[in-house]
């Protein structure tokens, strides 16, 4: 039987290549030395089996996704990732599972050059709690409360394929997807790409005002910006960039899943009109598509319009972990 | 039905009395401004129902304990607490439970003047994951690897009452405890006291070398210090300070539960002989009992002795979350 200490040593303790962490795994606390003059950004996300992922989910994809959704929060703040802790409850210490999970986790960590600096393992219903740390210069954070009337609303990447894949798995679609389409859409659901470089550059270059990552559906998440910034918005639903598979579906599904899909982990940010060219240049430099989809208004409320500028009345709602 | 946002707002979002946090709950990340020149200490602990606490546990006590075990890790490092995040999976958004839990949590947070700066809530089997942040001056951390031959071994407070209470609940005792004794011992199990002030002063005044908090039983936890410091120890088992209730029990139980009980959340630290008087003065100043219980030796291995200095061969083992 694999003990807790063997488990940590075998799967999660790696040669200490610390430039950041003064002390990593193996003591009561990890120690990090903050870069002088920088603020620390912190976010914590918990993923529960049967809620955030299917029972029996491929552990490699799960390792990626658990870290990706946390990095996405740093991206939405414009913070540069530094490290993370992992607390993990497992029904059993299964080697194949741990091998896959740690591989998926560290592949993404290495892509961003960040370290696992500490955490906890215990027996229990599968639960993954990651806390990430990032750094940014005071005053540069992309806060939800910073949108201003007249700002453009931008979306990174494309929306809705993750929701489409979920609908496919759940047999909710009017007609099932082709197997290849289901697989392609599922890649967006299982292995989201945190838009870290884009968020960091938008913050460092002072190009954007407010930002949020789209996890519960664009309309709900944009709603947080509107509420905290005390502004409204006009959103062109037909301008929302649909994922490759969703783009081949009918307009009803496209509108619903781009506007209120969920699990996208793209950035929604607002920026002054004067930033347009610089934003396109920055997005191009990091290879991320960005699309203008509406404007922030002084008048409160969210107005949805179609390609012709006519009002759209979509019956959509945001995902909530306790009411849905 | 209480939504996720209402839940956070109603039970976990408090008037922002931030001296530390530049930005608290309600954005993608929390922001903290590290004190210039200080290191950040980070620890994460996950508590699972049925594993770390009984199903149906009083939520007020649980709120206290979940934060206390994390603060205990900061104490063992000698770091001054700054704030924490809370990720919480709940089977349902039950108001009475949330009321009690948040009350227990914030009572302890207020006692240490620290803030809840962010986190996550979701539906799922009850799981509490707290990540704490503290600060300390570079070079002052009480590391597990820092024990030196000739050091005294010290214990804060008393040991074993938590384990005695658990044995009482499990009907494992040769004869049941009196109801009043069971209740008194259970206080130590349910509401441990993190030795934060003691740990911080030992570190700040440079009085101790190594430290660890005793969560899995003294022998196992001291074993981590010995292994990482590449030293051995002689431990006088009969000098171990027993909890008030355990002190009334027979010598077999006393030895077993002080030496390898678990859930004590006292500090075990090593310090040079020259520090003795200063340690007693510091402990007195914060109202915490400390007891010398042995010595660190250059020779490896842990030797248990009794009050007369004779070798003791206790068949004890440390608690492990995957093998027990």
From TrEMBL, chains A, B:
Domain of life per record: Bacteria
GO molecular function: ATP binding; magnesium ion binding; thiamine-phosphate kinase activity
Pathway: Cofactor biosynthesis; thiamine diphosphate biosynthesis; thiamine diphosphate from thiamine phosphate: step 1/1
Residues that, per the record, bind Mg(2+) 2: 45, 73
Protein residues bound to Mg(2+) 4: 28, 43, 73
Residues that bind Mg(2+) 5: 216
InterPro entries, A to Z: PurM-like_C_dom (IPR010918), PurM-like_C_sf (IPR036676), PurM-like_N (IPR016188), PurM-like_N_sf (IPR036921), ThiL-like (IPR006283)
Domain PurM-like C-terminal: 191-305
Function, in words: Catalyzes the ATP-dependent phosphorylation of thiamine-monophosphate (TMP) to form thiamine-pyrophosphate (TPP), the active form of vitamin B1.
UniProt xrefs under NCBIfam families: thiL (TIGR01379)
Leftover remarks: Reaction mechanism of ThiL seems to utilize a direct, inline transfer of the gamma-phosphate of ATP to TMP rather than a phosphorylated enzyme intermediate.
Record family assignment: Belongs to the thiamine-monophosphate kinase family.
Protein name: Thiamine-monophosphate kinase
């Amino acid at each position: 039987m694999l003990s807790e200490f063997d488990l940590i040593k075998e799967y999660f303790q790696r040669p200490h290549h610390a430039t950041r962490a003064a002390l990593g795994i193996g003591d009561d606390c990890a120690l990090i030395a903050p870069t002088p003059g920088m603020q620390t950004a912190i976010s914590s996300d918990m993923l529960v089996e049967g809620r955030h992922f299917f029972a029996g989910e491929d552990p490699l994809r799960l390792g990626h996704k658990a870290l990706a959704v946390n990095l996405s929060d740093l991206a939405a703040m414009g913070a540069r990732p530094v490290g993370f802790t992992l607390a993990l409850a497992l029904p059993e210490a299964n080697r194949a599972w741990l091998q896959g999970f740690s591989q998926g986790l560290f592949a993404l960590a290495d892509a961003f050059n960040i370290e696992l600096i500490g955490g906890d393992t215990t027996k229990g219903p599968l639960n993954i709690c990651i806390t990430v740390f990032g750094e940014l210069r005071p005053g540069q954070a992309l806060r939800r409360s910073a949108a201003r009337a007249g700002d453009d609303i931008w979306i990174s990447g494309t929306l809705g394929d993750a929701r489409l894949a979920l609908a496919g798995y759940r047999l909710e679609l009017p007609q099932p997807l082709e197997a290849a389409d289901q697989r392609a859409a599922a890649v967006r659901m299982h292995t989201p790409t945190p838009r870290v470089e884009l968020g960091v550059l938008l913050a460092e270059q002072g190009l954007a005002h407010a930002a949020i990552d789209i996890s519960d559906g664009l309309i709900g998440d944009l709603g947080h910006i509107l509420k905290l910034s005390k502004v409204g918005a006009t959103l062109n639903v037909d301008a929302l960039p649909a994922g490759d598979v969703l783009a081949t579906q009918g307009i009803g599904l496209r509108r619903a899943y781009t506007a209120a899909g969920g699990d996208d982990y793209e950035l929604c940010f607002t920026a002054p009109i004067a930033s347009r060219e610089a934003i396109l240049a920055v997005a191009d430099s990091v290879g991320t598509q960005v699309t203008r989809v509406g404007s922030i208004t002084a008048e409160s409320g969210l107005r949805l319009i179609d390609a012709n500028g006519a009002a759209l009345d979509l019956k959509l709602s945001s995902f909530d972990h306790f009411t849905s």
